[in-house]
Specification:
Blueprint (H helix, E strand, L loop, with lengths): L2 H28 L2 E8 L9 E8 L3 H32 L4 H12 L4 H8 L5 H14 L1
Antiparallel strand pairs: 1-2
Helix pairs in contact: 1-2, 3-4, 4-5
Length: 140
């Protein structure tokens, strides 16, 4: 693993969130129901006026199949992004605790090197933490 996979991890996390929002948006669209009242009567005598409530969706069968296909594609995108997340999280378990903290603060939380150093404590500086991580990746 290298720094690129950590960037991919962050993108995968955001992609999962965005895809979930898109799926919710599609589901709301599918649940949109239009309701109206109509009036009619029988064709034969005696003509009796009646009122009916009619309801349905605003899209056709073709639109429905398109929505289902789009939802399927979004679910696949989400599954792939979650797979990337899982791979990185499994890799993080093999990394020493100090490196886990540095990676978490820098890449997952997006802190600056100076902020990471403050969180790490022990008189760490931004440059020392950055160099520690670079040496770690050079060894891998």
């Amino acid at each position: 693993m290298d720094k690129a996979i950590l960037q991919e991890y962050m993108d995968a996390c955001e992609l999962v969130k965005e895809t979930e929002r898109e799926i919710q948006k599609l589901n709301r669209k599918k649940k949109t129901v239009v309701q109206t009242n109509v009036t009619g009567s029988m064709h034969e005598f005696p003509y009796v006026r009646q009122h009916f409530k009619v309801q349905g969706t605003t899209f056709t069968v073709k639109d429905d199949s398109h929505l289902r296909y789009e939802e399927k594609m979004l679910e696949q995108r989400k599954a792939r992004a979650e797979q990337v997340k899982l791979q990185v999280e499994e890799w993080m378990l093999t990394v020493p605790s100090r490196m886990q903290r540095i990676i978490k603060y820098r890449y997952l939380e997006g802190l600056s090197w100076q902020q990471v150093a403050v969180k790490m404590g022990r008189k760490a500086t931004g440059d020392s933490v950055r160099m520690e991580l670079e040496r770690f990746f050079q060894k891998k």
